[in-house]
Design goal:
The chain is mainly α and 446 residues long. The protein has 19 helices and no strands. The longest helix has 31 residues. It is a multi-pass membrane protein.
């Protein structure tokens, strides 16, 4: 799918606005809810470990849907998949806002995650369609900002809303943006489609593999351990069957050709480890601040802001550094800084000053920003340009897999760690960051 040279600049701006809106909303959907988890827990009188599934469900659903949605986008068209994904995301936001019980809220988040997958996969690919080839990099730069800025502002937005309204308004703010769907359908260019059959067997095995594994890990500490272990083993078996089935498929969802490139594979694993470290901290820190330090949701939101803010500031600087220095070196330095910041959070004083928290989380943000742009660049340029779509799909998949595994581990650690669950999560995040740094360093020898 090359750029559409004939698309008028004015129409391109409208389409791009809708794409950025959807990507921004899906990014905000991940960043804005974490701070409200203690509020949600009190609202439904549920345990912390059970409430974490409000985050887990979103990440898990998006992860399970990414590869099938990428396949659907080729057969049904990017325009239809993006519009459907945005509509599902907005309607599910209504379901989240009015959910009467925690299981109903988790169910609505599952649907919302599926919509986010459609937006994430089709949105980035559409940038390549609506821009002329010489301007694609400009469009991708706007995408990076659309994802980074909501991540940076998410804690502050959440804190502001929670200061004046209930947590349900965190979801209701998405609804007015549903008006962008008809605008997008009208302005977007015609789709380019590929004739291919939908892989129902592969989709089912993909869902079972990720679903059983993540649910098993997440319930290991709060339910019957034998059932949880059985789910984990079943998930691993389904994953092996999924890989075998994909190898026999002439048009597989998994890009085996790219995984034969060591640089690409190591970049994927670096991404998985790094995003797992990020979500372990993002989900556990609100509990540390509100439950352990007895801070308000508003204070928590503002304290969390330095991390994503410094990530947004550092990411473009890291992009310029990538031109002069190997991505493996920059990523390793960044992830080492992230690990150091998480370790410093573990050893916070009992009654820390606000500045003690701010500079530690700012260090985490700088480290994560140094990792993000160079690693994405290495992943997207490791293979031939004709496989950019598959590389983009795996880029998103690695991110969501890391988030899903990290979120499930939060549930496990909270179930086993009790009052010290948040501290143990930070230690686990530090370990994942160091694993990512080691994996990134291995690229130097490839």
């Amino acid at each position: 799918m090359g750029g559409v040279e004939c698309l008028a600049a004015s129409k391109r701006r409208w389409v791009m606005l809708c794409i950025l809106l959807g990507l921004g909303l899906s990014s905000l959907g991940s960043a804005i809810v974490n701070i409200a988890l203690p509020n949600v827990s009190r609202s439904f009188a549920s345990s912390d470990a059970a409430t974490v599934w409000v985050v887990n469900a979103y990440q898990l659903s998006a992860t399970v849907c990414l590869l099938p949605v990428a396949s659907l986008a080729e057969s049904l068209g990017l325009k239809r998949v993006y519009a459907a994904g945005l509509a599902i995301f907005v309607l599910a936001s209504l379901g989240c806002a009015f959910a009467p019980t925690l299981p109903m809220l988790v169910s609505a988040r599952l649907i919302q995650g599926a919509g986010a997958a459609g937006v994430a996969v089709a949105g980035v690919a559409l940038v390549r369609v609506i821009y002329p080839r010489r301007m694609v990099s400009k469009g991708l730069a706007l995408v990076a900002l659309a994802v980074a800025i909501p991540g940076a502002l998410g804690p502050t937005i959440a804190a502001t809303i929670l200061a004046v309204a209930k947590w349900s308004w965190l979801f209701l703010v998405n609804v007015p943006f549903g008006l962008a769907v008809p605008l997008f359908i009208t302005a977007a260019p015609p789709d380019v489609r590929v004739a291919r059959l939908f892989d129902l067997t592969g989709t089912a095995l993909n869902a079972l593999a990720f679903g059983l594994f993540v649910v098993g890990v997440g319930t290991l500490g709060i339910g019957d351990g034998r059932i949880a272990m059985g789910e984990i083993v079943a998930g691993l078996v389904c994953f092996s069957l999924f890989v075998r089935q994909q190898r026999q498929n002439p048009m597989p969802m998994l890009p085996f050709d790219l995984f034969r490139i060591p640089l690409f594979t190591l970049s994927v694993w670096t991404s998985v480890c790094s995003y797992a470290a990020q979500i372990l901290a993002y989900v556990s820190l609100p509990f540390l601040f509100e439950t352990g330090m007895h801070l308000s949701a508003v204070e928590t939101g503002f304290l969390l802001t330095p991390w994503p803010f410094m990530t947004a500031v550092t990411a473009p600087i890291a992009g310029r550094l990538t031109i002069r220095y190997p991505a493996s070196v920059i990523c390793s330095i960044g992830l080492t800084l992230l690990a150091a910041g998480l370790l410093l959070m573990v050893f916070l004083p009992t009654t820390p000053a606000k500045w003690d928290v701010v500079w530690r989380l700012a260090l985490c943000g700088i480290g994560f920003g140094l990792f993000q742009t160079p690693n994405n660049t290495a992943m997207m340029t490791a293979g031939p340009i004709g496989r950019s779509g598959a590389a983009s799909g795996m880029n998103a998949a690695a991110r969501y897999i890391g988030w899903s595994v990290g979120s499930a581990l939060v549930s496990l650690i909270f179930g086993l760690g009790g009052d010290q669950g948040a501290i143990f999560c930070l230690v686990a995040g530090m370990v994942f960051a160091l694993m990512g740094a080691a994996t990134s360093s291995a690229r130097r020898f490839r």
